[in-house]
Amino acid sequence: MKIFAARCSIALVILAAASFAFANPFKSRIITGASSALVITVPDDHFLKITNFSQEGGTDRGVVSVTLTGDENGGTANVLTATRVDLSTGINSQNAPEIINRAIIAGPAQVTVAPVTGATLFITYKKESNVGSGGSNNNIVFVSPTPGATATPTIFPFLSPTPSVGP
Fold first, then answer.
1. φ, ψ at 88 (rounded to 5°)
2. Which tens digit of pLDDT belongs to each residue from 19-29?
3. Less packed terminus of the chain by CB within 10 Å, N or C?
4. Gap between the Cα atoms of 88 and 57, Å rounded
5. pTM of the predicted model, to two decimals?
């Protein structure tokens, strides 16, 4: 029985090590007003998936800025603004909660998140390989948020048979 338990524990350790070796986990970063800018380099045939970009405090919005570093592309654009999570005070107190947007940015590009004075920014992202994409002419792909389904009560009327008047 001890040999069986030892073999099972060895197999479990090998499987756990393999999952860590091949996993491509999400990364999260906190950027405060005193932090330096977060710079993420996305190489060619890779893409960056941003699943959360939120902000607490501050008056200005945090922005994800992308600079394309390809052959003829060049240029910089703001592709995502932070979702405010502290709407209980100030001029935004009457607004409804905001939807958290997501973005996918194809390389080659340099992604920058600059700090905002008086704010704390939180970003979650994942860099992935774009193997088998069939080409490297991908610039920027925007993914709009999918609103959640809301249930709407509907009353279905019961149809009662109506007498037909014959000839």
1. -80, -20
2. 555 556 888 99
3. C
4. 11
5. 0.60
